[in-house]
């Protein structure tokens, strides 16, 4: 995978999140991981689609994110692929998030995982769920853009 414009290297993306939620605000958090998890992330053995972020006792945790262990994992390590992992964020940011998440309809959704300066970071968003008609609008817009691109491509030939 190639590096992004901002110097980060993507690991995994939660494309389903953009379909299911409106993003209000984005945050970048560090992650507390075990050694086997970092090795598995280097190989891209992660799934974010079922993950969500909760706040417990003033700390952030990501639940439901699955990191599949490598076959070459050590025998003395017991890998738990769906364990709860802690996210690292400044206290002021967490306090601000607590107030917003308690509002009706808001949740914290992981958007992607990426490398930044040798560390694994998790982008997450304060999001509000889309209604069914909003999802249909998203599909309609996407199909419209696709048709315009096809027309432009055929004209260039």
Automatic annotation (TrEMBL):
One of its GO terms (molecular function) is RNA binding. It holds the Pfam family SmpB. The keyword NAD does not apply. It is found in: Cytoplasm. GO terms for biological process: trans-translation; trans-translation-dependent protein tagging. Gene3D superfamilies: 2.40.280.10. Residues 131-157 are annotated as: Disordered. Keywords: Cytoplasm, RNA-binding. InterPro entries: SmpB, SsrA-bd_prot, SsrA-bd_prot_CS. Its main location: cytoplasm. GO terms for cellular component: cytosol. Required for rescue of stalled ribosomes mediated by trans-translation. Binds to transfer-messenger RNA (tmRNA), required for stable association of tmRNA with ribosomes. tmRNA and SmpB together mimic tRNA shape, replacing the anticodon stem-loop with SmpB. tmRNA is encoded by the ssrA gene; the 2 termini fold to resemble tRNA(Ala) and it encodes a 'tag peptide', a short internal open reading frame. During trans-translation Ala-aminoacylated tmRNA acts like a tRNA, entering the A-site of stalled ribosomes, displacing the stalled mRNA. Belongs to the SmpB family. PANTHER family: SSRA-BINDING PROTEIN, TMRNA-BINDING COMPONENT OF TRANS-TRANSLATION TAGGING COMPLEX. This is SsrA-binding protein. It comes from Ramlibacter pinisoli. The gene is smpB.
């Amino acid at each position: 995978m190639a590096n992004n414009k901002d110097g980060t290297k993507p690991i995994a993306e939660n494309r389903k999140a953009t379909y299911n939620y409106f993003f209000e605000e984005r945050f970048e958090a560090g992650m507390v991981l075990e050694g086997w998890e970092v090795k598995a992330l280097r190989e891209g053995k992660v799934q974010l689609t079922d993950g969500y972020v909760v706040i417990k006792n003033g700390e952030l945790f990501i639940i439901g994110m699955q990191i599949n262990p490598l076959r070459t994992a050590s025998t003395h390590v017991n890998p738990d692929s769906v364990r709860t992992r802690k996210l690292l964020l400044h206290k002021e940011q967490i306090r601000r998030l607590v107030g917003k998440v308690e509002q009706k309809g808001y949740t914290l959704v992981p958007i992607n995982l990426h490398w930044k300066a040798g560390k694994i970071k998790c982008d997450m968003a304060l999001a509000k769920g889309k209604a069914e008609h909003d999802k249909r609008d998203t599909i309609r817009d996407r199909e419209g853009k696709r048709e315009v691109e096809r027309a432009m491509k055929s004209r260039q030939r």
